[in-house]
Amino acid sequence: MRGKEKIFLLLAIIAAMGVSCASASFNRYYLGVAIDVGINIILAVSLNLINGHTGQFSLGHAGFMAVGGYVAAKITLVWGSALPAGAQPFLFAGALLVGGIVAALAGLAVGVPSLRLRGDYLAIVTLGFGEIIRVIFQTSDYFGAATGLTGIAKLTNFGWAWGLAAVTVYVVASLVNSTYGRGFIAVHDDEIAASAMGINPVRYKVTAFVVGAFFAGIAGGLYAHHKAVLSPGGFDFIKSIEIVVMVILGGMGRTAGVIFAAVILTILPELLRGVAEYRMIIYSLLIIGLMLTRPQGLFTFGKKGTAS
Amino acid sequence: MDWFLQQLINGLALGAIYALIALGYTMVYGVLRFINFAHSDVLMLGAFAAYYLAPPVASALGTASVPTALVVIILSAAICAVIGMTIEFLAYRPLRQRPRLTVLITAIGVSLFIEFTGQHEKVFGAATKPFPTLLPKKEIIVGALRCSSNDLVVVGLTAVLLAAMWFIVQRTKVGMAMRAVSFNEQAASLMGVNVNAIISFTFAIGSALAAIGGIFYSMRAPGIEPLMGVQPGLRAFIAAVLGGIGNLPGAALGGLVLGLIETFFGGMPGLSDYRDGIAFALLILILLFRPAGLLGKLQTEKV
């Protein structure tokens, strides 16, 4: 089983790289949307670890994304010009990694207070944390204050976005399906019963936050180098909500469903561009309609089996 | 000292508005156990109702007079009460037995729907509109302190409304039913409480308070636009959690604390940029030491 998953991961990365090599022949607009989809898959799958598998309710995912994005963008902005062109991908990889690690530290900072809080209180703390991050970036001159960072090198391509999306899916799925990872689901199902069985809910919650934040940070780095500009307004509460909606529509704790939801919810607003003025109205009505008719998630059929 | 008193006055006026809005969050949470994200948009609709009602009412009762203000406020509150009940009936009632998270996402959907519909040019339009003067405005100056008569009216009316809420919830039959539904919905319905009617009533009251809060907020703001509800709504939400969500005096206290924090930090040079962040940071600190809010009671989970 594990070997099979590794092969799938490898195939996915090779496919992503292959498509990426041919990317010059694609329509730039479609390519841009495809990269957006890849980034959103990373965000949704990583949030799914926190909200879906572990059953915590985080409304601050955009905050982690902002941390990773700003840190990675700053790194390539500062050192990018000093290095030769050949070293750029390595710098980019390093920047993404550092961004992810700093975001993971932020996740640790949120995960630790969450030990004492649950439900709505946790939701507001994570929401507050996301807002604090935004305010810090918005007031810090080093990070461009309210205007944000501009002139970031466009280093993200299809291969990076989808390759890292495959890595994220692989890591989250194999983490949850491992012996250790059953603890996430146990904490989700019943915290008290889990701790009675000798599972330490605190450790699992913090792990979920740290891992989730790490990948959100990576997604932020990809996003920064895809859009070439970062502004604090792009990481507000609405962005967090968008990611939460992906997780819920996909079916909490179902990786495949969440991936589908991320794809559909990224493409849908683009398809609705033709009716631009009604676009967001239709989007919101769809959310309401889906919740009324398919609250268990769009792609949830039958009983929940394993977490993949 | 003067600076301190001045900020205290401003903070109280702002806090009173937050308290009004926070009451709506907390009451809905009390009966349905979910955070009604659309509350902040009902607040915006209240302000717009007043915006459209003010000219015709003013032509009948005189511009910027007390009767005009009263009629406009009451009519807007009534409109929002109906809107709140409609939202509950259409979007939340079918989901009553579903997991709370489902309802929460629906509430977010409703909120986005109202915001984006409001921004459409055929509805309100995205541009900021000047809010009409409802009340004759006077500056009251005592020593070095200045205080707008509007602020006094806001604080006074809020105090009256809070007292009225307390009376409704603690001393009337409807209030008793509300508390019963909040305590145990099933048991309440077995005792002959019409749960649907009580929940509708809660939404009506909460939305009416949001409308009044929205009008007061607009009286201090530079203008109104379809996204104006987001910021005060978020603050009021924090206030409700800060005081202990589901707890009425807690919401009032939380609102005041938040209003004071915001004006004090906003008034300090160098810190004003961090105002929003500090409100959240303090909230997180308080929740770390009192995980159920200032006045909330922590419930131990039973197996």
Description of the molecule:
- The complex is a heterodimer of chains A (308) and B (303).
- Chain A is mainly α and 308 residues long.
- Chain A is built from twelve helices and no strands.
- Helices cover 71% and strands 0% of the residues of chain A.
- In chain A, helix 3 runs parallel beside helix 5 (119-139) and helix 10 packs across helix 11 (255-271).
- Chain A is globular, with a radius of gyration of 19 Å.
- Chain B is mainly α and 303 residues long.
- Chain B has one domain: Orthogonal Bundle (ABC transporter involved in vitamin B12 uptake, BtuC), CATH 1.10.3470.
- Chain B has helices spanning 2-32, 39-61, 66-92, 100-119, 149-171, 173-183, 185-190, 195-220, 230-243, 248-267, 275-289; strands at 139-142, 145-148.
- Chain A binds chain B through residues 57, 113, 116-117, 120-121, 123-125, 128-129, 131-132, 135-136, 138-139, 191-193, 237, 241, 244-245, 248, 252, 277-278, 280-281, 283-285, 287-288, 291-292, 295, and chain B through 29, 35, 91, 94-95, 98-99, 101-103, 105-106, 108-110, 112-113, 116-117, 120-121, 234, 237-238, 241, 245, 273-274, 276-277, 280-281, 283-284, 287-288, 291-293, 301, 303.
